[in-house]
Amino acid sequence: MANLLIVDDEREVGNFLAHLLGGRGYHVTVVYSGKDFFAELEKKQYQLAMIDVRLPDTNGLEILKRLKKIQPACKSIIMTGFSMVQTAIEAIKLGANDYIEKPFDDIDQLEHSIEEMLKNDLTHGQNEINEIASKLDFVVGESEQMRHLLTMAFKIAKKNINVLLEGETGTGKEVFARFIHEASVRQEQPFIGVNCGALSETLLESELFGHEKGSFTGAIQMRKGLFEIASQGTLFLDEVAEASPQIQVKLLRILETREFMRVGSERPLRTNARIIAASHVNLEQAVRAKSFREDLLYRLNVVKLQIPPLRSRKEDIVHLINFLLAKQPDRQIKFTDEAITLLMNYDWPGNIRELANVVTRATTLSEGETDLVTPQYLPQHLQEQKEKKKVFTLQLEHPSRKNHRMLKPSKNSEFEQYVNGWVYDLLKFWQSDEIEFEVVSQHIKQFEATVGQSFMRKALRETLGNRKEAAAVLKISERKLRYLLNEKGG
């Protein structure tokens, strides 16, 4: 059976867990301080550690960091009081597998959680994440940032805590909220969403809390509100920053007491709905601007997940395009390399939503003409990136330098020639009377891409084409090397 390590300065808790888990056949060791914990780690391998947040000589987060360094395969559960949930969330971010609140209310659930955690390896958890994402048409892609965020969301999904999603418009906050719902114990219950900025104050109040018959003109019958309908499920409050001050007050009350009243009623009702709120604006800045209540932010922001913009996860663009094209099974559509390059070089202020619109536009315009999407089917502002690059090349051409831009440095002399030529270009442009910053930025990006290719090719030559060894030489992951080679054409 597995070796379990309990770290808690309360001897009653340690003795209780040793008796409970020892009775299940586990080999349990109990220590009461950080010093004893560090000594115990040197003696044998553990499969699970249960760590209290507060200890006399250290704290649970420091112990967790040390555990991950010395025995990275050991799974971990943080034990905390309700008032320290934020610390537990920090532990999840540091790699803890779960957290439990003391006192332990449901012993059967605790035993089940430990059994499942020891039975299932990390691959099982990742497979479950991928299955839920696939069910929701959630494209995970290659981005380490997004994968880490999904793992975090998966871990906190089973906890009955509120979640705040922040991210730019079009990043997929509602899909993320649905992922949390599907990964939770509420998955069989309703998931209901409402955009707080799309309705007037009166309509939003009626939508959220319901109304009694005759409570206002047009209320011809009683109507349940979303807090009542989603009482055992999840209520997604999109663009919560757009809610009026009056609605914010009522949201605060319902989060504090779990009670609300329908419009026109004097009878309080209770709700157990889990709240996932989302905003494209930074709510902390909104609090400073006096447009959002600080006490409401504290209630919503038990866990905050920041959804990254598409420009910071460009390695996922090809995956997203392929997913969108797969929705048209009657056509074998493909984007040319030149079209893909334009899409990869764009910053996507409208994020995934904008990308979806561009792909839909391109496939619609090309229908009946071709199944190969070239740059001519892309919006004009994307095509103009290419034209600016051409103008820039013409402006900086110099007869004495020949075609150094066409050069792919493979030797020291060629690399030096390329770098010198690039510096010549930049200085020449610096001396020009007209400056187009966008053009200069493109020049820098081109230099960065070419130099990056050169270092990757150098590492591959030195390792005889072994990508794993080349990645180690470059001190990057093999996945990142593969992405860079595919994206940059190295």
TrEMBL record:
Gene3D superfamilies: 1.10.8.60, 3.40.50.2300, Homeodomain-like, P-loop containing nucleotide triphosphate hydrolases. The modification 4-aspartylphosphate is found at residue 52. Residues 3-117 form the Response regulatory domain. One of its GO terms (molecular function) is ATP binding. Residues 139-364 form the Sigma-54 factor interaction domain. Keywords: ATP-binding, Nucleotide-binding, Phosphoprotein, Transcription, Transcription regulation. It comes from the Bacteria. Transmembrane segments: none annotated. One of its GO terms (biological process) is regulation of DNA-templated transcription. Pfam families: AAA_lid_14, Response_reg, Sigma54_activat. This is Response regulator.
